[in-house]
Amino acid sequence: MLASLYQPPAMSLTYHNGALLEGNLPVSVLWYGKFSPAQKSIVADFFLSLQNVQQKGPESAQPVVSQWWNKIQGYMEKAGKIPTHIVFSDQISDENYSIGKSLKKTQISDLTKKANSKPGGLVLVLTAQDVAVEGFCMSGCGFHDSVITPHKSAFIWVGNSVTQCPGQCAWPFHQPIYGPQTAPLGAPNGDVGVDGMVVNIASL
């Protein structure tokens, strides 16, 4: 009864005048390590769903991703920015682990140069489940930064945590290491690691 009376507060974000990715945003993906076609399609489908957001109509009829993305775009408009339009661009695979399976953070920015990014674009570096990255699991599940390749572009790195720390980086699709031990949600695509990666990509 009490739960039915409680109305959670609306999500509120504060803009601190930092740089925002606005307008047409080409997204290039570098797959580092071995990913199956099905795993790649999970990430691709997420970005493609952002290209086809319906701005009109009842919110309840929209996919969950669209509701979230429209809210983000609302904050962009309040900040006086142009709404972001995702353009899914190049995909590059490095299945042979060209710089090894144990990477420093600085090597992630080096990998972005392989991705053929567009000016002002976003490079997504995704590492496979058998790749260890400095700080992964201990200090975070991913990070973002910018790099000049030779033009300036932003990049995001996220790792597949399924064999390293799913309780930290694949929640809510895996039992959490800390906190209430509630049952995990079912991974929407049946892949705990990659579905968890999508959550982390969205958060970055």
Q: What is the CA-CA span between the terminal residues?
A: 36 Å
Q: Helical stretch count?
A: 6
Quaternary arrangement of the chains shown? single chain
- Average the pLDDT over all residues and give the rounded result: 84
**Share of residues in helices:** 25-40%
CA-atom Rg in angstroms? 18 Å
The biggest sheet, with number of strands, parallel, antiparallel or mixed sense and barrel status, is:
5 strands, mixed
Number of spatially distinct domains? 1
- Name the strands of the widest sheet in spatial order: 2-1-4-7-6
Measured by DSSP, the beta-strand proportion falls in: 15-25%
Low-confidence stretches: none
Order of helical and strand elements? HEHHEEHEEEEHH
Number of beta-strand segments: 7
Shape: globular
Structural class of the helix and strand makeup? alpha/beta
Family: Belongs to the EXORDIUM family.
GO cellular component, one term: apoplast
Pfam family, one: Phi_1
Keywords: Apoplast, Secreted, Signal
Would you kindly provide a written description of the structure presented here, covering whatever features stand out?
By secondary structure, the protein is an alpha/beta fold. It has one domain. The chain is built from six helices and seven strands; from the N terminus they run αβααββαββββαα. It has helices at residues 2-5, 37-51, 64-78, 105-111, 166-169, 192-203; strands at 23-32, 84-94, 102-103, 122-127, 132-133, 142-148, 152-159. A hairpin with a 3-residue loop joins β6 and β7. It starts with a helix and ends with a helix. The mean pLDDT is 84.
